[in-house]
Specification:
258 residues, alpha+beta, 2 domains, eight-stranded antiparallel beta sheet, four-stranded antiparallel beta sheet
Length: 258
């Protein structure tokens, strides 16, 4: 059943490549219990076709409505599947292993090659710029940092993703904001945000020099009474470079429902 359902859902991605008339025919073929056999209707005169055209269109409209309903029901079944089913384990097949993404850096738009990372334990995915960054796993955290180490005079540049299973977003962001206040001279107010992720954000600055440290923390609901924290670190001069790239990559962060 899982394989049939998956095939049905994937089938809809092909409709855009067909003509409108062919789409109608494909949907009818899926819904009918058996394929329609050729009849002598095709030899009827144009006058007869015009007389039946309206009833045919009505029937097609009914069938496409039924098809949409079937798809919605099937998708609901997919969401209700328990964790660990074969279908859920195939989630990665729904995301391209690599893709090109446009990002604006210092006022200029450029196309980047991004690679999929799926954290199977924490149940999330993210795409990252594989030309400029690497992803390493350290102590249960995923860290995206520059491929080549920066010279010692530069502060750390990284984006760290960590799951906090036992703390809700609204409580966690307050605690993290308080911790930042004890380390940085300028800590901004906590904001509720919808871009680049849905959650909370707090920003801290170590000063106003070109190499002053910048820390931006996002807290996102993990959909299991816990949270994800995404901590960006860079320096003031890199805000329109690394900062912009991290912002774009974070748009690709998605929590996977179990």
């Amino acid at each position: 059943m899982e394989r049939n359902l998956k095939d049905k859902l994937l089938e809809k991605s092909r409709y855009a490549e067909e003509t409108k008339e062919e789409v109608w025919d494909r949907i009818e073929a899926m819904l009918d219990s058996e394929p329609a056999a050729p009849t002598r209707m095709e030899t009827r005169s144009r006058t007869t076709r015009k007389q039946t055209k309206r009833s045919d269109r009505t029937m097609r409209t009914l069938k496409i409505t039924m098809g949409v309903a079937v798809f919605i029901m099937a998708f609901g079944v997919f969401l209700a599947m328990p964790a660990g089913t074969a279908f859920m384990k195939d989630v990665k097949e729904w995301f391209a292993p690599e893709k090109k993404v446009e990002v604006e850096v210092e006022g200029q738009k450029e196309e980047t090659d991004q690679k999929l990372h799926q954290n199977e334990e924490s149940k999330y995915i993210i795409y990252y710029d594989q030309e400029r960054y690497k992803l390493v796993q350290e102590n249960g955290k995923d860290v995206i940092t520059t491929k080549e180490p920066l010279p010692e005079r530069y502060p750390e540049v990284s984006m760290t993703i960590e799951q906090v299973k036992d703390e809700k977003p609204e409580d966690l962001i307050k605690r993290l904001s308080s911790e930042l206040a004890g380390k940085y001279e300028d800590v901004r107010e906590v904001e509720k945000v919808s871009d680049p992720v849905q959650g909370y954000m707090v920003r801290a600055l170590a000063g106003k020099e070109w190499d002053s440290e910048v820390v931006v923390i996002y807290v996102v609901d993990n959909q299991k009474q816990g949270s994800f924290t995404i901590t960006e670190k860079y320096f003031l001069e890199a805000a329109e470079g690394h900062g912009a790239r991290f912002h774009q990559m974070l748009k690709e962060f998605k929590v996977l429902a179990e």
